[in-house]
Amino acid sequence: MTPTAARPLRRDAERNRQRVLAAARELFAERGLEVTLDDVARRAGLGVGTVYRRFPSREALIEALFSEQLDALVTLAGECLREQNSWDGLVRFLEDFACRHGGDRAMRELLFTGAAQRPDFARIHAELVPAADELVARAQRDGHLRPDLRGTDLPQIELMISSVAECTRGVDPEVWRRYLTLLLDGLRATPRGPSPLPAPALSHEQTEQALHRR
Prior knowledge:
Elements lengths: L10 H21 L5 H8 L3 H7 L3 H24 L4 H16 L3 H8 L6 H23 L11 H16 L7 H12 L16 H8 L3
């Protein structure tokens, strides 16, 4: 007998799978990688056995959720390297990263902590590192970027902005753009005067809410 292709899930099974993924996406963004399959089952309103039938381990669920997003980052880096203006390419990379993943605690942990040492995610890191180096080198060669910046500075900048985005998402989900603009002004090789800030500062009350948000 010849092997046959895997049968598509029944409609109700696929619906449950999507409920699991939606619940997991919310929980991982809120709490990070410490979320358990029991947590996901409760958020999805399903029995834990249903979750395990679709995803036999937490690692399988993490891979299903994040592999595509991490591959998209590599694609983004390639697109930014093809931007005609090297400064625009660098800015686009930092801005799009924050737009996509700024408030996602689990994505930040995958990218910036030892949790990223899974084989597939390590492959993504290996592709992103030279891309980040070249984004920086291009902008420096063209005279846009200060000469002492290094590709290894980009993850730290992304970490700063994503931390702000996570902290403030319940107060002002767009305020991270203000701080990215301030950072970019400091990265220019030749200051051109302050850029207009795209978002107002938080009020004292908003700052308190953001800093004490659990």
